[in-house]
Amino acid sequence: GGYNSNYDQAPGGGDRWVLVDSIKGLQSKNRDGKFAWGDYCKKYGNGLRDPEKHTADFLQNFWDAWSSGAEPRTPRGYTNGGSFGGRDGGRGRSHTRSRSRRKRRRSQDKRDVTTPVLKLGGLPFSVTAQEISEFLYDFSVLPEDVILVHRDGRPSGEAFVTCVTVELASEALQAKNGKYIGTRYVDIIASSESERDRASQPKEAPSGRGDGSMSLRLRGLPFSAQAGDVADWLADFRVVPADVTMDVNIEGRPSGEAFVYFRHSDDAEAAMARMNKERMGSRYIELFRASADEVKSASQRARGQRSGGGGGGGGGGYSSNTWGSNDKYRSRSGGGGRGNRDDEFADLIGKIKGMQKDPEAKARWRSYCDSKGMSHMYDPARHSLQSLQDFWYGPPPDVSSSRRRRPRTRSRSRGSSPVYPRESSSGLDDSQCVKLRGIPFSCTTNDLIIFLSPFGLDETQVTLDYQKGGRLTGDAFAIFPTGAEAQRAIDELNRKEIGSRYIELLPCRVREWEKALRSAEDAKIKLGNAPDLTNRVKNIQKSKEGTQKWWDFCKAAGHTKFDPAGHSEAFLQDFLDSIGSGPY
Fold first, then answer.
1. Residues 206-225 as b or e (16 or more Cβ within 10 Å = b)
2. What is the rounded distance in angstroms from the CA atom of residue 156 to the CA atom of residue 149?
3. What are the phi and psi torsion angles at 535 (to 5°)?
4. Model pTM greater than 0.85?
5. Contact by Cβ (8 Å): 286, 220
6. What would the pLDDT profile of 411-431 be if each residue is shown by its tens digit?
7. Inter-axis angle of helices 341-355 and 385-393, nearest 10
8. Who contacts 370 (Cβ-Cβ below 8 Å, separation ≥6)?
9. How many CB atoms sit inside 10 A of residue 327's CB?
10. CB 168 within 8 A of CB 116
11. CB-CB contact of 437 with 516 (8 Å)
12. What is the rounded CA–CA span in Å between residue 228 and residue 242?
């Protein structure tokens, strides 16, 4: 049955809307009050916690009990199994849903508990075995009796608890089902040893390799790290180099991640607990549980990269061409010679798609398509093999009439002589070029030379990169005598600092160096020595005394702008001449 009374006025004279506001405030500001209101609604109000859905009498009954610190009395008109407090007397759709939930809950509660194992659901993802033990403290549950369930290495919000006896398990289910841990109420149902064991037992890998439950993903590795370095770092956990898969990105370069296979899941768990966020060199490493699919994908990428290299063959890896081919289109022939036509077709599609990440190369490809009368057919997969061969092995398309076409040369061994060679017209090789990223905007060429002083470079071997307006881009480039020296600079100086900024050193292509040289020349033609003079003044302003001298100089000249970039080259030079070579 329901209860019908004056809906907006409690017998004690309390206004319903005042009570609604009061209880809502209690829910938002007082955690104990929120739980007390929830228990009261669950017991007498069909689980409806919104105060607006209850009568004034129902609200007044709770408020009086809460204010006096007593247990709420049974509301007038309440009947066990019936409803109380709804505007429609408890009837309607919400009442039907609540009654269905109560019936399901009672059927669960009444299910015979035949084993001491209980399954808990709806737990907070951050819950610990200790917190569950405290939740079930009255039923002699210890932390070691709790098994938290993880799926794909992540908390599932479920746990299994093994009580001492079946009787204690039954009492725990009756007393704690629907109670709260933190802000989450917990569902408890009877379970069994077999269900508990299935949920907690790690799956064995059928091949002994690549099972996610026994593998970890390492993130943040130095780009120079090898499998042996990772194995040494995890030597305490019985890891050997053969257990390490170094991941690569779509271009075949190191991604800074690796997957490590552990023969025993205990070793993986110990490594997670002890080595997460520990340092390898200057980098701190994060460890995550890895799924079987992640490990499989990384292994395929690594195998593709190893088969992609080679000198005269049609591999298509980054080490043999300027452009690496996409794994999806990578040639399967691997070895030397022309290989299968289908493999070559797929390999060229991958290379040309990868090439288009560079705006200049993308413009060449589109110009080539237009010149062939295939406008708007820019997807390489829609071209014939002959068309792709003409583009890749022949001369680049004549984008401007002033550019002289090079003689058409096609190698008989596909893949060995692409149209964009690694060696530039200046005789330099890509392996000699290094890009410095994160350069301070106040950096000068001299600062770069000092930063790279262990390698003896001079001003002809380094350059800053400039925007069209003459401002620095934050990048710089350096050319080293040999590829080995360039790699050693990356290994030794990566993440070192210039001023307060750490600098990333990355391999790059010679044409990037040449483009930066042109930008520096354009900036010098447009602004003279102003960029270098600006940076010198900014360096002087790093000291308090130097800043004050610059401000005084500007004010004396009647200027109110203190940004050196806003002044002429002559003005900057006059300032530098006025202060001499003092230590600023």
1. eeebbbbbbbbbbeebbbeb
2. 6
3. -65, -35
4. no
5. yes
6. 333 333 333 334 444 578 888
7. 50
8. none
9. 17
10. yes
11. no
12. 9
Give me the half-sphere count of Cα atoms (radius 13 Å) on the Cβ side of residue 40: 28
What tens digit of pLDDT does each residue of 501-511 get?
Answer: 889 998 888 88
Confidence (pLDDT) at 132 = 92
| DSSP category for residue 117 | E
What strands, in cross-sheet order, belong to the sheet with 154-162? 146-151, 154-162, 117-121, 187-190
Is-contact 290 259, C-beta < 8 A?
A: yes
Report residue 462 as tokens: 């380094």
DSSP for 465-518?
EE-TTS-EEEEEEEE-SSHHHHHHHHHHHTT-EETTEE-EEEE--HHHHHHHHH
The distance between the two most distant Cα atoms of the chain, rounded to a whole number of Å, is 102
Work out the pLDDT band at 436, boundaries 50, 70, 90: very high
> Residue 122 gets which letter from DSSP?
S
Residue whose tokens read 């289910």: 173
**Bridge-partner residues for 159, per DSSP?**
120, 148
Helix (H, G, I), strand (E, B) or coil at 181: strand
Look at the chain and count its residues: 584
* Distance, CA of 572 to CA of 71 (rounded, Å): 82
Round to whole Å and give the CA distance between 445 and 448.
Answer: 5
